[in-house]
Specification:
The complex is a heterodimer of chains A (115) and B (111). By secondary structure, chain A is mainly β. Chain A contains no helices and 11 strands. Classes of the chains: A mainly beta (115), B mainly beta (111).
């Protein structure tokens, strides 16, 4: 069975600083990996996905993530935080469940951006 | 218009009442999902359906049931609501790419 661990339920950065949100996964098969963002009072929106092509994946709003198989990690980064990036971020892994493929989500990391 | 819609958006109900949450999608996807979100727990899968004749339990299906009325419609029912079912509920759809598209959510409060 697949699982996802997101390190840190809350991460605080200053505007303009580097954003780093950590995600480690376990999967019995080569995984598909995703990062979603949830703004207040909204549903989840896909930021980026890894589907076994390039290990460095670029997403929307200058976010990117690097798939590292040896470390079983898929950390999310952004060079310079904006106030509008304040939201909750979820890492997810796609894997087998009873012959089907479903997503398993991490518990989320709330990103706080201060002026 | 939104690709995935959920009704109602907010609902307050009493313990023991039956309630149905509805989801519709215009993306033409075969696969649909119901999740609940609780603070600090992320999203947990309740039920999923890979086509109209296919219904599967997720990790937390106890106390819930679903109905797939058509390719575009997937409903979640709480037969006898209890307070610990107070949560934010999301519907999602996907195609073969496994990326899921989410609705705006239904905030359910059981008193």
């Amino acid at each position: 069975a697949q699982s996802v661990t997101q390190l840190g339920s809350h991460v605080s950065v200053s505007e303009g600083a580097l954003v780093l949100l950590r995600c480690n996964y376990s999967s019995s098969v080569p995984p598909y990996l995703f990062w979603y963002v949830q703004y207040p009072n909204q549903g989840l929106q896909l930021l980026l996905k890894y589907t076994s092509a390039a290990t460095l994946v670029k997403g929307i709003n200058d976010f990117e993530a690097e798939f590292k198989k040896s470390e079983t990690s898929f950390h999310l980064t952004k060079p310079s935080a904006h106030m509008s990036d304040a939201a909750e971020y979820f890492c997810a892994v796609s894997g087998p469940r009873g012959g089907y493929s479903t997503l398993t989500f991490g518990k989320g990391t709330m990103l706080l951006v201060s002026p | 218009d939104a690709d995935v819609t959920q009704t109602p958006r907010n609902r307050i109900t009493k313990t023991g009442k039956r309630i149905m949450l509805e989801c519709s999608q215009t993306k033409g996807h075969d696969r649909m999902y119901w999740y609940r979100q609780d603070p600090g727990l992320g999203l947990r899968l309740i039920y999923y359906s890979f086509d109209v004749k296919d219904i599967n339990k997720g990790e937390i299906s106890d106390g819930y049931s679903v109905s797939r009325q058509a390719q575009a419609k997937f409903s979640l029912s709480l037969e006898s609501a209890i307070p610990n079912q107070t949560a934010l509920y999301f519907c999602a759809t996907s195609d073969q790419d496994r990326e899921q598209y989410f609705g705006p959510g239904t905030r359910l409060t059981v008193t």
